[in-house]
Automatic annotation (TrEMBL):
<dbReference type="Pfam" id="PF13673">
    <property type="entry name" value="Acetyltransf_10"/>
</dbReference>
<dbReference type="InterPro" id="IPR000182">
    <property type="entry name" value="GNAT_dom"/>
</dbReference>
<feature type="domain" description="N-acetyltransferase">
    <location>
        <begin position="3"/>
        <end position="142"/>
    </location>
</feature>
<dbReference type="InterPro" id="IPR016181">
    <property type="entry name" value="Acyl_CoA_acyltransferase"/>
</dbReference>
<dbReference type="InterPro" id="IPR039143">
    <property type="entry name" value="GNPNAT1-like"/>
</dbReference>
<keyword id="KW-0808">Transferase</keyword>
<dbReference type="GO" id="GO:0004343">
    <property type="term" value="F:glucosamine 6-phosphate N-acetyltransferase activity"/>
</dbReference>
<protein>
    <submittedName>
        <fullName>GNAT family N-acetyltransferase</fullName>
    </submittedName>
</protein>
Length: 142
């Protein structure tokens, strides 16, 4: 069974970190010290599973009253193109809405902008580099 959920245990947290390391550090060459940062301690983490196998991750943190920032959203290559990114985002957006967030912000890798636009996110910045990767800031009202 495939599910996405809020992290509720140390094992689930480590599973989310494992996915992030595989995607961002190993696949995209993001330095580990940039991927695992000081915000991990304050963020609410999410993980997606196929049975017992973790394959997706993400986090949300509050940046301003009623505004959340979606970060570190990733899906392992084998699971891409199968709507699991939507499953992950829906889980995170549902959490944000039920916890009083009125707006979500994120920095999307430029190639992923069409994915976020389909989820009603709007571009709010020119392109910029983050960890050497082109990004654009986006947001969505909940």
């Amino acid at each position: 069974m495939v599910i996405a959920k809020k992290v509720e245990s140390e094992k689930e947290y480590q599973d989310a970190i494992l996915v992030r390391r595989k995607v961002f550090v190993e696949e995209q060459d993001v330095p580990l010290h940039l991927e695992l940062d000081e915000y991990d301690a304050e963020a609410v983490h999410f993980v997606a599973y196929d049975g017992e196998t973790p394959f997706g991750a993400g986090r949300i943190r509050s940046t301003e009253p009623s505004i959340g920032k979606v970060e570190r959203v990733c899906i392992l290559p084998k699971y891409r193109g199968k709507s699991f990114g939507n499953l992950m985002m829906q889980c995170m957006e549902d959490y944000a809405f039920s916890n009083g967030f009125q707006k979500l912000k994120l920095n999307a890798q430029s190639y992923a902008i069409p994915f976020y636009e389909k989820r009603q996110y709007t571009i709010t910045s020119p392109e910029f580099l983050e960890a050497g990767i082109p990004h654009r800031a986006m947001d969505k009202s909940l």
